């Protein structure tokens, strides 16, 4: 165990520690603290009264406290694939990469919400602005309520439901790994045959796009995942063009 821990490079190790500490704090401390941290640090839509400028950064260090699976899945991926990227990129470039793809994921998610809200706008009451709906909707949610009107309720969900998790950054890490090691054989838990990294990550991207468009898997920030992948693609293509990184060995 000590040998494995010592092999994790420093940025990846510290990302793991920070995420675990934040999750434990939200679990152990009173529920009022959990709620306050979520209001302040989870990613809210720009027009929400709970939006803060730092949330596109802080949201990626928070995870659902409804169980450990959200944290466990994300941190497993960050350690397994992020450790490799950090060794290839170096710690400073990897930290920049990780934070940038996480920020990109947040901005893409916000942009998609803006498009959805714009599409809803024609069905919303003419005498209410989105800012007013966000403000009143936030008060309703704080009392465990929302509007009975389905369009107003949907707008309220988009305006005031926070996004948390390192998934956007993780999907960027996965895309980066697949670009540097496209033929590396990977295994899924339920598929006993190896799949090349490039096909596995492409499959993840297609699945996220499908669920994001269809809405069949609600409660998951699918477009944040796609945003992390898009920003990772842009960064790596740019660094390759400048000759600053090369592909790893093709297994």
Percent helix, as a range, is 55-70%
Query: How much beta, percentage-wise?
Result: under 5%
Distance between the termini: 27 Å
Q: Which architecture name does CATH use?
A: Up-down Bundle
CA radius of gyration is 19 Å
Low-pLDDT segments, ≥5 res = none
CATH topology: Rhomboid-like fold
What is the CATH first-level class name? Mainly Alpha
Side by side, the strands of the main sheet go 1-2
Task: Report the structural category.
Answer: mainly alpha
- Report the mean per-residue pLDDT as an integer: 90
Task: Quickly list its features.
251 residues, Rhomboid-like fold, two-stranded antiparallel sheet, 67% helix, 4% strand
Describe the protein.
With 251 residues, the chain is mainly alpha-helical. The chain has one domain (2-241): Rhomboid-like (Rhomboid-like fold, Up-down Bundle), CATH 1.20.1540. Helices cover 67% and strands 4% of the residues. It contains 11 helices and 2 strands. It has a two-stranded antiparallel sheet. The protein is globular. The two termini are 27 Å apart.
Topology (elements, then pairings):
Layout: H1 2-7, H2 10-28, H3 31-41, H4 55-58, H5 69-89, H6 91-120, H7 130-142, H8 150-160, H9 167-180, E1 185-188, E2 191-196, H10 197-214, H11 222-241
Antiparallel strand pairs: 1-2
Helix pairs in contact: 2-5, 5-6, 5-9, 6-8, 6-9, 6-11, 7-8, 9-10, 9-11, 10-11
Structure, briefly:
Helix content is 67%, strand content 4%. With 251 residues, it is mainly alpha-helical. The longest helix is centred in the middle third of the chain and has 30 residues, at 91-120.
